[in-house]
Amino acid sequence: MDVIQQLGTYYSQNGGYVLQEFYRHFLMSVYGVLFAAIVGVPLGILIARYRRLSGWIFAVTNVIQTIPALAMLAVLMLVMGLGANTVILSLFLYSLLPIIRNTYTGIISIEHAYLESGKAMGMTKFQVLRMVELPLALSVIMAGLRTALVISIGITAIGTFVGAGGLGDIIVRGSNATNGTAIILAGAIPTALMAVVADLVMGWLERVLSPIKKKKKLAGAA
Prior knowledge:
The protein has a single domain, classed as Orthogonal Bundle (MetI-like fold), CATH 1.10.3720. The chain contains nine helices and no strands. By secondary structure, it is an all-alpha fold. The protein is about 85% helix and about 0% strand. The model is unreliable at about 215-220 (pLDDT under 50). It holds the Pfam family BPD_transp_1. InterPro entries: ABC_transp_perm/SBD, MetI-like, MetI-like_sf.
């Protein structure tokens, strides 16, 4: 009960600081995933077209995933210095695998009949991609973005060790303080809530964009 009271006191006295770090934490996570999506989605489409490249791409991204996050931050810090940019680049690298893999899987799992129908209608390759392949693969791609975002929120918490700020700052301050359990919780609880809410929202978008759901809506309208 004392911890809960201390937690409430901390929030009442430092609410603005917690919100500021929450916002900073969220932005770093989103930017890392966004930049990875800008690179990863086209790369996933490319290796779906030229599948011989997939082994090389997945080998590189799998190796990146095996590097501990703290070690990755330490290496990138030597190149980019302290700050949020180092964390964002790290999140970018970690987010590539789920985004590329899901984009690749979504594209190659589309039934060949849909592609042939598009070609029979006189569509160009780009039109087939834009109007057939991407809409059908979108829910799978969103699943990759969902995974990447949740992972990124967790990794961002250790960005405090390279001077990036975020909710990890609060957790570290609590771990360095005497009887700092309440302070640790003050940073850990918002981090967990952010990950849960992000997972729920991205999961909802994944279901909304599901081709099966779209087909059911069209059937109902007919």
